[in-house]
Amino acid sequence: MTLAIKIALAPLLLAQGRWARRHIPRLPEPPGEREGVVGRGGDTWRVLVVGDSSAAGVGVADQRDALALPLARALAVRAAARVAWRLVARSGVTTVQALALVQDQPRWHADVAVVVTGVNDVIDQVSPARAVAARAALRDWLVRECAVRHIVFTPLPPMGHFAGLPQPLRCVMGLDARRHDRALQRWVVRQPDVSQLFLHLPPDAALLASDGFHPGAPVYRQWAQALAEHIQERRIAGVAPSPHGEG
Asked: Could you count the other beta carbons within 10 Å of the beta carbon of residue 173?
């Protein structure tokens, strides 16, 4: 059904895509630390966040209000432990590009990795099958090279509610995002070292950043808390303390 809609609306969708690229404000990645240690306690959990502009915190003014640092702080409170965290993210990357990005960084062993990708796969019209294959390659590399014990993939946001996109482009991208999410879900359930976070927020434009595209501070706050709960409840950090140390 989505393909038929795309074919029928192709000229309009192409024009709206060009318009969106020109007119949606390009918000910067927020300043602030991209690694550190938070919390107190004898145990240390190590968390690596990898991904695109939402992983990088685009939409807020500082990393303190983004995803990675609030996640580390929330997990430290829930687990009563120290959390060493690192963020490797860049605006605009697809899942394949996120893998290349983390491969270019110094190796950093982690207990759990959180992967935030997918929106740019939809924008670049990467097929759901290719996007899942890229996630599998990213999972394999993180396990092999960073000794990650568990990877949490986050779902795509409800792109059909992105106020910054015109209609019908918004509707078509929303349909594509749901197709990608369903493909991700089918893959995740077959992987012993992978899980998927499910986070349902009301489709409220007030929760988005000023560009009508990226999360706003309330979304990042709820997202970080939900991830901390997901990680702590499943004890997927391998039951701290981590054997990796702090380097």
From this structure: 23
The domain that holds 89 is classified in CATH as: 3.40.50.1110
Residue 243 in any domain: the answer is no
Instruction: Write the DSSP assignment of 41-102 as a string of letters.
Output: SS-EEEEEEEESHHHHTBTBSSGGGSSHHHHHHHHHHHHTSEEEEEEEE-TT--HHHHHHHH
Q: Confirm whether 170 is domain-assigned.
A: yes
Count structural domains, the chain: 1
Pairing outcome for strands 35-38 and 82-89 = antiparallel
Residue-number span of the structural domain to which 18 is assigned: 2-25+34-234
* pTM for this prediction: 0.90
pLDDT, tens digit, 9 for 90 and up, residues 129-186: 999 999 999 999 999 999 999 999 998 888 887 777 888 878 888 899 999 999 999 9
**CB-count burial class (<10 Å; 0-12, 13-18, 19+) for 166:** middle
Q: What is the pLDDT of residues 2-33, one digit of tens each?
A: 667 667 767 776 777 777 777 677 899 999 99
Q: Please report whether residue 247 resides in a domain.
A: no
* Neighbour-count burial of 158, counting CB atoms closer than 10 A to its CB (0-12 exposed, 13-18 middle, 19+ buried): middle
